[in-house]
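Final report, Chapter 2: Outcomes

The project's central promise was a pipeline that accepts a single protein chain and returns its three-dimensional structure in a standardized token representation, suitable for archiving and comparison. That pipeline is now operational. To close this chapter, we reproduce one record exactly as it appears in the project archive, with the input sequence first and the structure output second.
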Amino acid sequence: MDTQMKNFGLKVFSLVTIFMILIQNSSSTVADSSGDEQLETMVEEDENELAYSSSTHGSTDELGAMEDDPWLMVQKKGNQFVVNDQPFYVNGFNTYWLMVFAADQSTRGKVSDLFKQASLVGLTVCRTWAFNDGQWRALQKSPSVYDEEVFKALDFVVSEAKKYKIRLILSLTNNWDAYGGKAQYVKWGKAAGLNLTSDDDFFSDPTLRGYYKAHVKTVLNRVNTLTSITYKDDPTIFAWELMNEPRCTSDPSGNKLQEWIGEMAVYVKSIDPKHLVEIGLEGFYGPSTPDRVQFNPNTYAQQVGTDFVRNHQVLGVDFASVHIYADSWISQSITDAHLQFTKSWMEAHIEDAEKYLGMPVVFAEFGVSTKDPGYNVSFRNTLLSTVYQTILNSTKKGGSGSGSLLWQLFPEGTDYMDDGYAIVLSKYPSTSEIISLQSVRLSKFNSLCSWKCRWGCKKKHALETSLYHDDL
């Protein structure tokens, strides 16, 4: 028999088998656990079949290959992300410096290299900076004064991401001094004659708030010079992030930061109601939830002016963000306690996102530094597996755990930018395989649930999870 015809027959048989299982599951009660077991079996079979191969990833997903997903906005439905009314889980990465590299023709190719390598292991979301305030190769040289060439570099990042089917979370400023951030806004304010005494005045001074709003308005209304699509209309952008890791240590009560978040989230939505908005928080618990501070990595964490639950209850915020750095927050030396903390930290935030917030939560930064005493690749792989499995445990129950973004992914030849956390896929095949496998698991899980939906699923199926189906 012709090989292609044989393969086609096998595919048809597999799809018919899956369809029959799905039909059978749909008639089961929620209490019946057989659907969960069958889905587990199918996913496990896929894991065995779809061993990592950077040259073939994406072409082996038979259900997903049946039809290309339209390039539409990511939206939120209850505590899940959806695209075209189908579930969307995040397996992604951070690379903050893409705009700066794209601004120089000698390094622009690294941006394309990165997206290509990320797409080959199934990564679908990248978090990066849409700011560089008053620094070398600044996007914003002074308040509302922009370098057009650097803006064109950001245009390139957005257009190139789309080519590789990667969506972007664009952060709009920094809590830290790198790339300017709130400290640079305060410097601009002082130069304008304002009486400012702390970098935290960024959150409360009306003029500085105005500077930030002007930047937001400029970025969101930017028309991409390569695609002619306005940023606020571009589905390539997954979400806007108000700030990278906001803290306001001058006000441990959290009131100052809470007011800023409330004002800016609504302001972003007033310009762009289509895209999702997140804050950029690390996830520390604060005064509003005294029973949850036990999950913080240390006592200082509840004194930095952030409050995970309260901050995310603000109007205009669509999903929660959490970071995970046991090696910075607990101890630099590698121990099993890092893994235990990671798991409990994630589970606590997933529970709160479900119980109090009713929104997805993304673990938007996590990693371990090669500079840590006791570091080895095996530990990093175990950390990744711990994060990924905790996400999967949530997805299988229809929970709020909606994905993760590793810190950080680098292409070859950029070692001089490494902060210790960089992962170069070609150098670490075992790590690449773990990342790829998570992509396969989430993609297949999405495909199976979407397949069932297309056949008329309107009720909870026997998975204990209906994903977003209950809202249909």
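Archive annotation: The two ends are 44 Å apart (CA to CA).
This record, like all others produced under the grant, will remain available to the consortium after the project formally closes.
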